């Protein structure tokens, strides 16, 4: 990749949106972006994004119910809920706790809640994913994050909290845009747009290699795929999608000399589709 060409084009893009940089310098852009521009943009984007990603989302969330507890109830925490773009994909009766860092998406969120009465909304917590202290340890069957890890301060901090609130055998579902293949034109344009995109879209990073954070976190099993979502002419087509299982509590409470028991417990807690995928009988993430 020609670094000088990237830098030249980066400056050209920055000049095109110079007024925004000036507003940012004056301290006006960030509050306007957070309160008005970004919520407006996300609401418009959600419908179009869901149209393009609905097949992926349906496939991703289709086994959610298999993580329900013994009573058949599924407790789910969504981090960075925004306008509730995923509600339509959750199974009936699912008990949802929503979280976000802001109340600025409330109009869109209320509309989504009204349209998805098959769900049981428990509470809305205004808190960052890095600090979910209002959520008890091991209290969730599933945690969901879509298009959020690109914007958080600390992916490691969020994943640590996800592992804490997930029960043993619970699952973390993710769909995130990420850095493209370094040999691709997409990656080139991500490098060009990176600083301006971050300014325009409330701190969204174009070039995060989020799959590395997921692989390093202490999940026992990860089903992860790299996919392209057809958001043509945008630098956010490259995504990762999948889910990861938390067996951490089992590992902590078991004697370390008992790997067979650990394996049996983890397999017992995993959903059927995951086990079948391992046997090559069903396509998994
Ligand atoms: C691009 S929107 C995605 C919203 C929704 N998840 C979706 O798929 O449409 C990013 C969301 O992440 C939220 N967010 C940003 N930083 C966050 C953090 N540290 N913890 C939790 N949510 C955060 C934003 O407020 C916003 O609602």
Automatic annotation (TrEMBL):
Keywords: Membrane, Transmembrane, Transmembrane helix. Pfam families: Methyltransf_11. Residues 77-174 form the Methyltransferase type domain. GO terms for molecular function: S-adenosylmethionine-dependent methyltransferase activity. SUPFAM superfamilies: S-adenosyl-L-methionine-dependent methyltransferases (SSF53335). The chain crosses the membrane at residues 7-29. InterPro entries: Methyltransf_11, SAM-dependent_MTases_sf, Thiol_S-MT. This is Methyltransferase type 11 domain-containing protein.
